[in-house]
Automatic annotation (TrEMBL):
InterPro entries in alphabetical order: Hyd_form_HypD, HypD_1
Stretches assigned to coiled coil: none
Naturally occurring in which organism (per UniProt): marine sediment metagenome
Protein name, UniProt field: Hydrogenase formation protein HypD
Gene Ontology MF, one: 4 iron, 4 sulfur cluster binding
Protein backbone atom coordinates (compact mmCIF):
# COMPACT_ATOMS: atom_id res chain seq x y z
CA UNK A 1 0.00 0.00 0.00
CA UNK A 2 1.35 3.40 -0.89
CA UNK A 3 1.74 6.32 1.46
CA UNK A 4 -1.53 7.87 0.30
CA UNK A 5 -3.62 4.91 1.52
CA UNK A 6 -1.77 4.78 4.81
CA UNK A 7 -2.31 8.49 5.46
CA UNK A 8 -6.00 8.20 4.64
CA UNK A 9 -6.44 5.71 7.47
CA UNK A 10 -4.40 7.83 9.88
CA UNK A 11 -6.53 10.87 9.00
CA UNK A 12 -9.75 8.89 9.51
CA UNK A 13 -8.71 7.78 12.99
CA UNK A 14 -7.73 11.33 13.93
CA UNK A 15 -10.95 12.84 12.56
CA UNK A 16 -12.79 14.48 15.48
CA UNK A 17 -16.30 13.82 14.10
CA UNK A 18 -15.57 10.13 13.49
CA UNK A 19 -13.97 9.77 16.93
CA UNK A 20 -16.99 11.41 18.61
CA UNK A 21 -19.37 9.10 16.72
CA UNK A 22 -17.40 6.03 17.84
CA UNK A 23 -17.37 7.29 21.43
CA UNK A 24 -21.16 7.83 21.35
CA UNK A 25 -21.59 4.26 20.08
CA UNK A 26 -19.34 2.89 22.83
CA UNK A 27 -21.31 4.79 25.48
CA UNK A 28 -24.66 3.58 24.13
CA UNK A 29 -23.59 -0.07 23.88
CA UNK A 30 -21.46 -0.55 26.99
CA UNK A 31 -23.56 -0.74 30.14
CA UNK A 32 -21.79 -3.29 32.33
CA UNK A 33 -18.30 -3.13 33.84
CA UNK A 34 -15.63 -3.99 31.27
CA UNK A 35 -11.92 -4.51 31.93
CA UNK A 36 -9.62 -4.31 28.91
CA UNK A 37 -5.90 -5.04 29.11
CA UNK A 38 -3.52 -3.47 26.68
CA UNK A 39 -0.66 -5.93 26.48
CA UNK A 40 1.97 -3.86 24.70
CA UNK A 41 3.62 -0.83 26.24
CA UNK A 42 3.37 0.97 22.91
CA UNK A 43 -0.42 0.61 23.08
CA UNK A 44 -0.38 2.05 26.61
CA UNK A 45 1.62 5.08 25.44
CA UNK A 46 -0.68 5.71 22.46
CA UNK A 47 -3.78 5.43 24.67
CA UNK A 48 -2.23 7.93 27.11
CA UNK A 49 -0.98 10.39 24.47
CA UNK A 50 -4.35 10.50 22.74
CA UNK A 51 -6.36 10.88 25.95
CA UNK A 52 -8.40 7.75 25.28
CA UNK A 53 -8.44 6.68 28.93
CA UNK A 54 -9.99 10.03 29.94
CA UNK A 55 -12.87 9.95 27.45
CA UNK A 56 -14.03 6.36 27.92
CA UNK A 57 -17.11 5.78 30.08
CA UNK A 58 -16.37 5.05 33.75
CA UNK A 59 -17.54 1.45 33.37
CA UNK A 60 -14.64 0.71 30.99
CA UNK A 61 -11.36 0.18 32.82
CA UNK A 62 -8.09 0.00 30.90
CA UNK A 63 -5.46 -2.14 32.60
CA UNK A 64 -1.82 -1.88 31.59
CA UNK A 65 -0.55 -5.38 30.98
CA UNK A 66 2.80 -7.04 31.33
CA UNK A 67 4.21 -5.68 28.09
CA UNK A 68 5.03 -7.47 24.87
CA UNK A 69 7.68 -10.20 24.97
CA UNK A 70 10.21 -8.01 23.19
CA UNK A 71 9.84 -5.14 25.66
CA UNK A 72 9.89 -7.16 28.87
CA UNK A 73 12.47 -9.85 28.15
CA UNK A 74 15.64 -9.25 30.19
CA UNK A 75 18.85 -8.85 28.17
CA UNK A 76 20.34 -11.78 30.12
CA UNK A 77 17.72 -14.06 28.52
CA UNK A 78 18.69 -12.77 25.08
CA UNK A 79 22.37 -13.38 25.80
CA UNK A 80 21.60 -16.90 27.03
CA UNK A 81 19.54 -17.83 23.97
CA UNK A 82 22.26 -16.49 21.66
CA UNK A 83 24.81 -18.69 23.43
CA UNK A 84 22.49 -21.70 23.19
CA UNK A 85 21.87 -21.04 19.49
CA UNK A 86 25.54 -21.69 18.78
CA UNK A 87 25.27 -25.29 19.98
CA UNK A 88 24.72 -28.17 17.57
CA UNK A 89 21.26 -29.72 17.36
CA UNK A 90 19.60 -26.86 19.19
CA UNK A 91 16.39 -25.33 17.85
CA UNK A 92 15.03 -21.98 18.99
CA UNK A 93 11.40 -21.03 18.47
CA UNK A 94 9.90 -17.62 19.16
CA UNK A 95 7.32 -15.15 17.95
CA UNK A 96 8.28 -13.17 14.86
CA UNK A 97 8.59 -9.85 16.67
CA UNK A 98 11.23 -11.34 18.96
CA UNK A 99 13.48 -12.16 16.00
Amino acid sequence: MGGEGRLRYVDEYRNKEIAQKILRQIRSISKKKINLMEVCGTHTVVIFRNGIRKILPSNIDLISGPGCPVCVTPISYIDEIIALSKKDNFIITTFGDMM
